């Protein structure tokens, strides 16, 4: 069954998985803006969680030839999800889920707070644990120094934010599936390191593009692009791949610490050999329709045939473990979540603390005004979003959170 609609623009067409509801006007204009770029390959795909973003919409899949748009990748390069299924069942969880949440918060720095633990400082480590330091020096230090030598402005906090969560929509959860099996799941990315890389190259692309004579009108300066063969392009790809690897390792190291925290309250469990660890803000070289292209997924997950992915809803509505169906029309992609229906500012104005408390019944989580912008009402109906992409993924597990940790 075909789920998408086709919208013809003056340039590349749009293929939109919009049966969950029409996309907002601002997001539609951004999709059209991207489709006007002359290096778009075939079409621009819009996932059912599409909403307005910087330059390009969140929830879009953009295939390009010989060029890449740094703002379409964004500043949280490599942001994504990780999930691990344990041998525990619901009945083996501790009686005090509040104590478990506090244990996880001690194990992993979050947000921009300094008070959760003596060793947490402004979203990172006051003194980086040995295991985290070893991972940094073994896997990243040499690569980072080479990047900084060429682009000194990207330097800053690096190793002391590895194995940390961040704030905003990032989270850690303990969940139950339909068989009452316990899962650990988390959402984070490349932290300040990726932010500095993304910001630097977005600005560098804008500065470079004004010096070029283009044979078309660039409708949005945030769509400034880099072309293959330029030094700036090569530098960006090197730094972007670094940030994506950093994000992947960040989630792995966080998960180790989350599982250690869980073992203090529910000892003796095992985990599945294979964990799911997937980006949803990144770019990579792939072959589609017989051509090698750059595929930028801004708020979208790779969903090749048989590939497992994670689609979270919100802090109160659970998540899905999915298996990709390899739909070429979406460039083998699916949504990365439910997608926002309110900006953070709108959510804080329109969602009351009482409404948030009601939405979070039965979940051990923060219930205060500081997280109203992440309340379930700020997001689209995850059920409708999943219904709209039945030709992209099949559901393997529905997860319901019992513990939620927010920054």
Radius of gyration: 21 Å
What's the CATH architecture?
Answer: Alpha-Beta Complex
The CATH homologous superfamily:
tRNA-splicing ligase RtcB
**Low-pLDDT segments, ≥5 res:** none
Q: How many distinct beta strands? A: 19
Class of secondary structure makeup: alpha+beta
Silhouette: globular
Description:
One of its GO terms (biological process) is RNA processing. Keywords: GTP-binding, Ligase, Manganese, Metal-binding, Nucleotide-binding, RNA repair. Its EC number is 6.5.1.8. Its cofactor is Mn(2+). With 407 residues, the protein is an alpha+beta fold. The protein has a single domain, classed as Alpha-Beta Complex (tRNA-splicing ligase RtcB). 29% of the residues lie in helices and 27% in strands. The chain is built from ten helices and 19 strands. The chain has a seven-stranded antiparallel beta sheet. The longest helix has 35 residues.
């Amino acid at each position: 069954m075909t789920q998408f609609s086709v919208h013809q623009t003056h340039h590349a067409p749009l293929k939109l998985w919009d049966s969950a509801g029409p996309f907002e006007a601002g997001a539609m204009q951004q999709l059209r803006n991207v489709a006007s770029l002359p290096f778009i390959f075939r079409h621009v795909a819009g996932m059912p969680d599409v909403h307005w973003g910087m330059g390009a919409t969140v929830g879009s899949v953009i295939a390009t030839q010989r060029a890449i748009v740094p703002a379409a990748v964004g500043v949280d390069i490599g942001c994504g999800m990780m999930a691990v299924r344990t041998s525990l069942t619901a009945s083996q969880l501790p009686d005090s889920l509040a104590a478990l949440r506090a244990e996880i918060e001690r194990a992993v720095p979050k947000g921009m707070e300094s008070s959760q633990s003596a060793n947490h400082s402004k979203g990172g480590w006051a003194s980086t644990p040995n295991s985290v330091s070893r991972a940094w020096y073994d896997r990243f230090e040499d690569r980072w120094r080479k990047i900084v030598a060429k682009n000194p402005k990207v330097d800053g906090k690096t190793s002391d934010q590895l194995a940390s969560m961040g704030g905003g929509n990032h989270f850690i959860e303990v969940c139950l599936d339909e068989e009452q099996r316990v899962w650990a799941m988390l959402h984070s990315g490349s932290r300040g390191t990726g932010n500095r890389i993304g910001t630097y190259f977005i600005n560098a692309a804008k500065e470079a593009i004004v010096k070029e004579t283009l044979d078309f009108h660039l409708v949005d300066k945030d769509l400034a692009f880099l072309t293959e063969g330029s030094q700036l392009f090569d530098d960006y790809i090197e730094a972007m791949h670094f940030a994506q690897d950093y994000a992947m390792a960040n989630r792995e190291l966080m998960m180790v610490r989350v599982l250690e925290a869980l073992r203090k309250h529910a000892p003796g469990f095992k985990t599945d050999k294979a964990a799911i660890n997937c980006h949803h803000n990144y770019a990579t070289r792939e072959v589609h329709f017989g051509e090698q292209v750059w595929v930028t997924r801004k708020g979208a997950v790779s969903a090749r045939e048989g590939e497992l992915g994670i689609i979270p809803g919100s802090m109160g509505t659970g998540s899905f473990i999915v298996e990709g169906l390899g739909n070429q029309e979406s460039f083998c992609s699916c949504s990365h979540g439910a997608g926002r229906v309110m900006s953070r500012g709108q959510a804080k104005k329109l969602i009351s603390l009482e409404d948030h408390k009601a939405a979070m019944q039965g979940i051990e989580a923060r219930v205060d005004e500081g997280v109203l912008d992440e309340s379930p009402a700020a997001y689209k109906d995850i059920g409708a979003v999943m219904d709209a992409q039945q030709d992209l993924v099949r559901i393997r597990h529905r997860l319901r959170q019992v513990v939620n940790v927010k920054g």
